Amino acid sequence: MRKILVVEDEDILREAYEMILSTEPYVIDVAANGKEAWNKCQQTNYDLILLDIMMPIMSGVDFLRQIQNRDIGYPKIIVMSNLSSGHEIDEALRLGAHGKILKSSLSPKQLLSAVRYEVEAV
Predict the structure, then answer these.
(1) Distance between CA atoms of 91 and 102, rounded to whole angstroms?
(2) Helical pair 34-43 and 60-68, crossing angle rounded to 10 deg
(3) How far apart are the first and last CA of the chain?
(4) What whole-number distance in Å separates Cα of residue 23 and Cα of residue 84?
(5) Could you tell me the CATH number of the domain that includes residue 26?
C-alpha cells in the first residue's frame, strides 16, 4: 500500500486533504510543519509527500533542503501553495519537487487526480 505524507500548517486544510485522500487505498500520515514531517520521514519511507511551502518552525523549502541530505530514498514531493509563482516555488522545484499545486483553486477531484498520477508513476 502506498504511503503519503500531507504537510500542512492550517488544521482545516490538513484535515480536508487527509479526508479526501482517505477515500483511496493509501496510508495517510499528516504533519503540521516541516520539522514534524522531517521527524516522520526518519521513521517511515513515503512514496509521496504533499508539502506546503509557507509554514512555521520549518518551511517547505527548508524541509526540501533537509531531505536532500537523507541517505535513504528520496520520495516524490509535490509542493502546495497559494502562490502561483515566486522565489519559494522556484526554489522548491530547483531542490527537487516534482510539481506544484495551487491550493486556492484545488478541488477534491484535482487533488486525487494529481496524487494518483504521482503514486502510479512510482
Answers:
(1) 16
(2) 30
(3) 12
(4) 27
(5) 3.40.50.2300
Model pTM score: 0.91
The sign of the dihedral angle between the CA atoms of 62, 65, 68, 70 is negative
In three-state form (DSSP H/G/I as H, E/B as E, the rest C), the secondary structure along 35-80 is HHHHHHHHHCCCCEEEEECCCCCCCHHHHHHHHHCCCCCCCEEEEE
Tally of domains in the chain: 1
The residue length of the chain stands at 122
- pLDDT, one tens digit per residue, over 19-32 is 999 999 999 999 99
Distance of CA 44 to the CA centre of its chain: 14
Low-confidence stretches of the chain (pLDDT beneath 50): none
Q: What is the domain extent for residue 90?
A: 2-120
CA–CA distance, 68 with 41 (Å, rounded to integer): 12
